[in-house]
Predict the structure.
Amino acid sequence: MSKFALAVAALLAAVPLAAGHAAPISGAEIRARSGGGEFRGYGATRRNPIEDMIWRFRRDGSVTSISTIRRRAGPGSLSEEYRDAGNWRVEGDRLCVDFAAAHRDLSGCYVVDGVGGDHVRLIGPVQLQGTLSR
């Protein structure tokens, strides 16, 4: 395993400990942050241990997503970009997304843990971390 990969793994392992005071936010708060807002974050996906992503939530219930993964860091680095679109909704106190293609594996419902300010953890089909705000 490369030094970069080890450093990333160590960082990801420490994140849940640092965010130990997280608490789920309500469905009303999820709606307030999501409608016309966006999630900017990262997490481990089937494609890569770290995938950076942006989900843009429109008020009409549609969502677009773009994500980037880096295959190598430094000179000669490689990155790949994925885009998708779908729908979002709030069910109870969970944020639910349905993507049609590249992010189909991210589809499902997520508990949104407020970590502090706009920072959240999304816990569902995969665990993601980032900000959720308008």
